[in-house]
Amino acid sequence: MAAEFDLVVIGSGPGGYVAAIRASQLGQKVAIVERENLGGICLNWGCIPTKALLKSGEKFESLSHLKDYGLSASGATFDFDAIIQRSRGVAKQLNQGVGFLMKKNKIEVIEGEAKLEKGAAAPKVVVALKAGGSRTIEAKSVMLAVGARARALPQIGLEADGDKIWAYRDALAPKKLPKTFVVIGSGAIGIEFASFYRALGAEVTVVEAVDRIMPVEDEEVSKAAQKGFEKRGIKFKLGAKVTKVSKDSKGVKVELEVNGKVESLEAEVCISAVGITANTDGIGLEALGVELERGHIKTDSHCQTNVKGLYAIGDCAGAPWLAHKASHEGIHAAEHIAGYKTPNVNSPIAGCTYAQPQVASVGVTEQGAKAEKREVKIGRFPFKVNGKAIAAGETEGFVKVIFDAKTGALIGAHMIGADVTEMIQGYVTAITMEATEEDIHGIVYPHPTMSEAMHEAALDAYGRVIHI
Amino acid sequence: MTDILMPALSPTMEEGVLAKWHVKVGDTVSAGDVIAEIETDKATMEVEAVDEGEVLEILVPEGSEGVKVNTPIARLSGDAVAPAPKKADAPAEAPKAEAPKTEVPKVEAPKAEAAPAAPKSDDGGRIFASPLARRLAAQAGLDLKTVKGTGPHGRIVKRDVEAAGKGGAQPAAAATAATSAEPRKALSLAQMGIADGTYDLIPLDGMKKAVARRMVDSVQNVPHFPLFIDVEIDQLMAVRAKVNKMLEPQGIKVSVNDFVIKAAALALKMVPEANASYTPEGIAMHHNADVSMAVAIDGGLITPIIRKAETKGLAQIATESKDLAKRARERKLKPEEFQGGTFSVSNLGMFGIKQFTSIINEPQGCIMSVGAGEQRPVVKDGQLAVATVMTVTLTCDHRVVDGATGARLLQAFKPLIEDPVAMLA
């Protein structure tokens, strides 16, 4: 049987559907297999619906600061169901948008669960169709974009049940608003849910195993973030090892070991945000001999696995587990399949957390640079002396940049404060284009904007800061 | 109607010269007729028709250079679908992908004093390099003109400068030489003081370009060294006279070079480490001694191969070498007859050259240069005597053949050539 498609993409998250569109643009005949919703976790159960919730939380919280702006209102309240419904509606709208994009790009959408079998040019894809029956598809290339799911720790009783122990999916569409939470894990997912539920008035305690929150961020940012969250009423247990999670009729009990001391926390609901597990099981990888590396599919610089014709991108192919990294890899792999020689799959990937305050970063941290024994020049600038931030009443946070002392290359940027997730791409562009301090010093930042702090931080690294 | 396409005469051929048409518009050809001659790097090949029909159109005129493989070169009447001669050999066509449309924002270099000015390329155009690449190059004292860019639109980025700095990419001259037939941009003769009109210019043909490219590559990239040894060939001359007398009725005449080929092949079997090629993946240890012999031909040289020379008798080697040399001069060798030897022998003895050092014929590990056999004074047992002596030089690729390995090869070779009876053992 001749190959029916040039490319079959398995999984329609932000990696898979973007790769499918790019391949189609390049004249490939493409099919995409999805077992659940077009758009994957990102826009159905991840990035997008959480942003909808967080916006509701943020708007509600801002009502308590109205008098800072000379305003007043009374009787402010919220409708929790309506907040959740809005979030689901946003997800639905984008899900339909992906369906439209598939149609527009003449990509065949096959609904069902895919499994791989040995094939000729690439593995065969056998789909157990949602509508019943199965369909075997042969393609010249196959791309795995199967993503990841929340990690469970059954040995300590940390397994989502949708009732008292929630994973992200449960936390996105609960039936009612609990009054107390314990959130396990202070990465982006844990912090965003903590921030949202705290904004609606819930008591939230975040448990983190290491001695600071958001451990992938720069230490200064971790500290400032903790202060910012604590100011808003979130509590933290740091250096706390969870030894047991148990349920009773009232809620959950989380047993901890903090500095050798046994403690426990009780709440109505526990949100588990202890990382993710790649979806590498049940798709026939073992029989094909697909090589894994620490639970993820091992790929080369063009996202190729060790099996001929089989590519893997996004979460299932390793960290960072971010939608934009998946899209970038998907595009690269699609171009490679079409015969392109695009070498830059290793572009810098920024990370964003949409809590209040927001956190955004790209490149190395100060601690990471020190561990690599790199000589660096570091600059900082706080928003409290930025004109626009003062005018907007958003003076929390700062910008920190790290340059390689020898070459002047920008190698890291860390920001905390209002709207920093929208600003970070300025530094991402600079790093991607291999800017040095001279380039950034020479850029004219519009006034008045919070982005001027980005300029000032870069000037500060070289002793040239203006407004301090 | 059938298009006749430019055939690929070897797996690596990308383009060739359409040297001569043997047919003209209106001629009728049948399968097997020679219709054209095509000149590649090393040989002129005849192209035969595979279809019958009338020549309707000649699409590529005689003498056209750089005709890409699979370009239609002529049109034949008849509805036969059979495509061009030997099309099966044609390399698969690369996917015709449009270049990714990455827009490169035009970032001008800041005009700070310390900023290295954007360098200009040879032809005066701006060299596109990232700010960091410029600075790294300036710090490393590397000329950006010598660095090949791999970023968007060929922009030079950090990794390119780092690769060039590590010597992964040789600073430019070598990099260019590897890809172009002309190793470097030479000054014009007028610039060098030779007036126009005082010379004739012979255009570079495929062979000239190929030899130039391969020799420059070899000298620049292969760490080569020579080993010299003198061999006495009085006994060889006697044996040769005897052998030739025996073979006279068959019309076969064995040359000294045929003895050298045979002895070298046997020596290679005794010292197999010398019958090797360097490749980035590892050292290829060849199973057979396929000996390339350098043949000077009008307008260049070519190295036809005596395959498995260690298994062949002198008479066979003599017959083959004579035939190969003859067809080489007529430029009638097939690619497989001159591509892929494992060892080379070059002999300038007939010109009276005493000794010389050849350039490694990549990917071979060694090349043997044979000088003239001449009577020289030698000291034997403390007495001055006269012997017929021939100086043999072995140029070795040090990546595969160390000094000691090369020396052992010559040590094995010497007794075989000095007393050819040893070759019977």
TrEMBL record, chain A:
Keyword flag Flavoprotein: yes
Ranges where the FAD/NAD(P)-binding domain occurs: 5-330
GO MF annotation terms: dihydrolipoyl dehydrogenase (NADH) activity
Enzyme class per UniProt: oxidoreductase
Primary location group: cytoplasm
Annotated catalysed reactions: N(6)-[(R)-dihydrolipoyl]-L-lysyl-[protein] + NAD(+) = N(6)-[(R)-lipoyl]-L-lysyl-[protein] + NADH + H(+)
Listed InterPro entries: Class-I_Pyr_Nuc-Dis_Oxidored, FAD/NAD-bd_sf, FAD/NAD-binding_dom, FAD/NAD-linked_Rdtase_dimer_sf, Lipoamide_DH, Pyr_nuc-diS_OxRdtase, Pyr_nucl-diS_OxRdtase_dimer, Pyr_OxRdtase_I_AS
Known EC number: 1.8.1.4
UniProt keyword annotations, A-Z: Cytoplasm, Disulfide bond, FAD, Flavoprotein, NAD, Oxidoreductase, Redox-active center
Disulfide bond found in the keyword field: yes
Family (UniProt): Belongs to the class-I pyridine nucleotide-disulfide oxidoreductase family.
Additional record remark: The active site is a redox-active disulfide bond.
Protein's name in the database: Dihydrolipoyl dehydrogenase
Native species: Brevundimonas guildfordensis
Gene assigned in the entry: lpdA
From TrEMBL, chain B:
Biased composition (Basic and acidic residues): 86-111
UniProt GO MF annotations: dihydrolipoyllysine-residue acetyltransferase activity
Source taxon at top rank: Bacteria
Signal peptide, first to last residue: none
Domain Peripheral subunit-binding (PSBD): 128-165
Domain Lipoyl-binding: 1-77
E.C. code: 2.3.1.12
Catalyzed reaction equations: N(6)-[(R)-dihydrolipoyl]-L-lysyl-[protein] + acetyl-CoA = N(6)-[(R)-S(8)-acetyldihydrolipoyl]-L-lysyl-[protein] + CoA
Role, per record: The pyruvate dehydrogenase complex catalyzes the overall conversion of pyruvate to acetyl-CoA and CO(2). It contains multiple copies of three enzymatic components: pyruvate dehydrogenase (E1), dihydrolipoamide acetyltransferase (E2) and lipoamide dehydrogenase (E3).
Subunit structure, interactors included: Forms a 24-polypeptide structural core with octahedral symmetry.
Protein name: Acetyltransferase component of pyruvate dehydrogenase complex
